[in-house]
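EI: anyone free to look at a 133-residue chain?
SC: sure, send it
EI:
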Amino acid sequence: MYKKTFMRVLKGFVVMSTLISPVVALGAGNIELGKKVFNRCKACHSIKPGKHKIGPSLHGVFGRVAGSAPGFRRYRGLKSANWKWNKTTLNEYLTDPKVYVRKNNNKRRSGMVLKLKKKRDRQNIIEYLKLLK
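SC: here you go
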């Protein structure tokens, strides 16, 4: 009898942990979903080192000083930026790039027009960008 009860409880824990683990994994963002979100960025940005399009390559962007992608010369609002790209700065920037640059770089403007309104999309793409080193 105790063995049956123990097995039922054990099965319950297994089922619950299976249901909970995807939620825990999504807490910071999901890399695979971030790749999908990045499809919206591909028209203007590359992920290959040194390969720039309208916007700079995003390879190695995480931890880099804004406006400092090697070889990219078309910066507008980020040319004299004084912040590094991290979770916080990327999240705020991707919410509304023009507002973020104006707030942090006074009279400068961002050339980026895409806004990621959904917090989950921003979290996912940030996790993806962290991998591009």
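EI: The chain has five helices and no strands.
SC: 👍
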